[in-house]
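input
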Amino acid sequence: MKRRSLDKGTRILDRVLRILMVLLAACPLHALKARPASDDIEDITGKYHFLSADDKLAILEEEGKLKGYIDVYQGEEESDVVLSYPIALGWRKKDHVEFKTGKIHQKYYRFTGAAERGSGHEQADPDYLRLVGDLESVTVRGDSGQEAVERRRVVFKSMGKSEAAEDE
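output
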């Protein structure tokens, strides 16, 4: 009696394994491929959405060094319409990205994170690349020189070619 149940269990296991093998064989290989590793991102040059819909981050990567700016629109009560923070220091090594802007009105930005592929399929698509990490908005107190840091987790999505062209 026990032998029959063992044989039945073995037969069921054998059937399950055969079904799994057929399913795996039928599954297209391209569906199993992972997205390219972030090491495959050759260049992160481009424009990205920043904190609000009107703000933007523009990056030029040259040999791992980053240049560019962050344009931040001010509220209507502010005197300046747009503050343009230049990237003072910046670099990328493989997928790791860091930059720091220059200071305007005792404020500057620091970013540390990673470059990743987004949901866009081609370089001209919106969200082709993403910068994902921590952004620090640093305000320096004029009297004491102390820094007040506001830290937040961010995802900066690249603008599509048509979005970037409209922006110019």
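quick obs: The chain has two domains: 2-32, 38-167.
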